[in-house]
């Protein structure tokens, strides 16, 4: 029971957003979404609530409006007279403070990734995005490119990214490469972002993770399947709240053990959202996210001779000079190029969609006006 909604992350500003519904409405937080219905936590406990007409209409017009884990919602109680107790309807989604939106991805003809223009809200009203990346995959080290993508999306969401290098105990030191070297590489891929190694088995680093939550903060854990996200959530909760599973030996990638996104209130305060593994994520509409992940490149670029330098072959390019000198890893410049292109493509696509919507709207209005002026 959450008699004190502030433990769920409720704050005063939200009360003003709660709509006046005819039968009265209570606030609740979405813990899990299933087709057309949600599990919500209200002050008096957990309820199942089906989506109301307003919510369904909004979601039909814009998939991003679909209720999502972490959302604050207005809950209407139906059938007050019914002896079976209340049935609840999710009447409205309150405005989101932050939203982690991923773009859909598809493979283009050259085998590269490109966005398909579809966005999906993975979690709402989140304060911290934990980007979980295992220290070791089957044969390879942490995937820095995936970290860059997730951190860019995290910045864009309005939440604060934190990178967790999970399963730190599995990192086998090589003669000339230790865990510290990996952590340095990860830190360089996410400037200005805290990076923590974690081992959920021994508990090493788990307290540092918890410290990011504070008394009532909400975090979401994102990362590939088998990264140990659910194991970490269990370590934070101090109980087996999520099912975890051995990684498949064959490819080390693991099956998807977690198949639902789930909001879990932690006993010591704060909330965490566990998610199914994501292998690939597309960028969604970006304003600053990519720039923040590549602040080192942006800073170098200030010294390029030309202000519109694209760092390809221009003379006097400070970025290329940094690659040449080894100061900037070439991988990182390539990654920046890729994400820049993707963000630009996404922006063009959004513009086109907005234009199309605008045209449609005006067509409807003109049609209505013609209808009205008819005798
Ligand atoms: N050695 C080691 N193994 C770990 C650690 N954390 C998790 N594992 C193991 O890694 C496997 C996958 O862990 P999960 O927590 O199920 O991974 P997940 O990220 O939730 O995976 P999905 O739910 O499929 O996205 C399990 O066998 C865990 O026991 C760790 O810190 N060290
Ligand atoms: Mg899991
Ligand atoms: Zn340049």
From TrEMBL:
It comes from the Bacteria. It holds the Pfam family RsgA_GTPase. One of its GO terms (biological process) is ribosomal small subunit biogenesis. Its cofactor is Zn(2+). SUPFAM superfamilies: P-loop containing nucleoside triphosphate hydrolases. Residues 114-281 form the CP-type G domain. Zn(2+) binds at residues 304, 309, 311, 317. Residues 124-279 form the EngC GTPase domain. GO terms for molecular function: GTP binding; GTPase activity; metal ion binding; rRNA binding. GTP binds at residues 166-169, 223-231. The keyword tRNA-binding does not apply. Binds 1 zinc ion per subunit. It is found in: Cytoplasm. Keywords: Cytoplasm, GTP-binding, Hydrolase, Metal-binding, Nucleotide-binding, Ribosome biogenesis, RNA-binding, rRNA-binding, Zinc. GO terms for cellular component: cytoplasm. Its EC number is 3.6.1.-. One of several proteins that assist in the late maturation steps of the functional core of the 30S ribosomal subunit. Helps release RbfA from mature subunits. May play a role in the assembly of ribosomal proteins into the subunit. Circularly permuted GTPase that catalyzes slow GTP hydrolysis, GTPase activity is stimulated by the 30S ribosomal subunit. PANTHER family: SMALL RIBOSOMAL SUBUNIT BIOGENESIS GTPASE RSGA. Monomer. Associates with 30S ribosomal subunit, binds 16S rRNA. Belongs to the TRAFAC class YlqF/YawG GTPase family. RsgA subfamily. This is Small ribosomal subunit biogenesis GTPase RsgA.
């Amino acid at each position: 029971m959450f008699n004190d909604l502030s433990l769920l992350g409720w704050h005063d500003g939200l009360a003003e957003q709660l709509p006046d519904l005819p039968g009265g409405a209570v606030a609740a937080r979405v813990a899990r979404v299933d087709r057309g219905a949600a599990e919500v936590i209200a002050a008096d406990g957990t309820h199942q609530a089906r989506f109301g007409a307003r919510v369904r209409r909004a979601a039909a017009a814009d998939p991003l409006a679909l209720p999502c884990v972490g959302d604050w919602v207005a809950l209407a109680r139906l059938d007050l007279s019914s002896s079976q107790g209340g049935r609840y309807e999710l009447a409205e989604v309150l405005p989101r403070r932050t939203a982690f939106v991923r773009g859909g991805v598809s493979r283009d003809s050259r085998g590269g990734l490109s966005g398909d223009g579809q966005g999906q809200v993975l979690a709402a009203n989140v304060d911290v995005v934990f980007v979980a990346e295992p220290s070791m995959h089957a044969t390879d080290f942490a995937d820095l490119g995936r970290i860059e993508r997730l951190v860019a999306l995290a910045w864009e969401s309005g939440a604060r990214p934190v990178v967790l290098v999970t399963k730190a105990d599995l990192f086998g030191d090589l003669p000339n490469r230790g865990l510290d070297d990996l952590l340095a590489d990860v830190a360089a891929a996410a400037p200005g972002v805290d990076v923590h190694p974690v081992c959920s088995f021994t508990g090493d680093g788990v307290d540092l993770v918890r410290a990011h939550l504070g008394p009532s903060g909400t975090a979401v854990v994102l990362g590939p399947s088998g990264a140990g996200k659910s194991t970490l959530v269990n370590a934070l909760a101090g109980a087996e709240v999520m099912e975890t599973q051995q990684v498949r030996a064959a490819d080390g990638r693991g099956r998807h053990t977690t198949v639902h996104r789930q909001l879990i209130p932690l006993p010591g305060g704060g909330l965490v959202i566990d998610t199914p593994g994501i292998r690939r994520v597309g960028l969604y509409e970006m304003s600053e996210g990519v720039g923040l992940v590549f602040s080192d490149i942006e800073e170098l670029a200030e010294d390029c001779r030309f202000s519109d330098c694209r760092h390809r072959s221009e003379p006097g390019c400070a970025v290329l000079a940094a690659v040449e000198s080894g100061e900037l890893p070439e991988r990182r410049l390539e990654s920046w190029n890729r994400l820049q292109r993707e963000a630009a493509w996404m922006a063009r696509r959004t513009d086109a969609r907005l234009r199309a919507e605008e045209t449609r709207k005006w067509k409807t209005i003109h049609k209505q006006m013609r209808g009205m002026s008819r005798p």
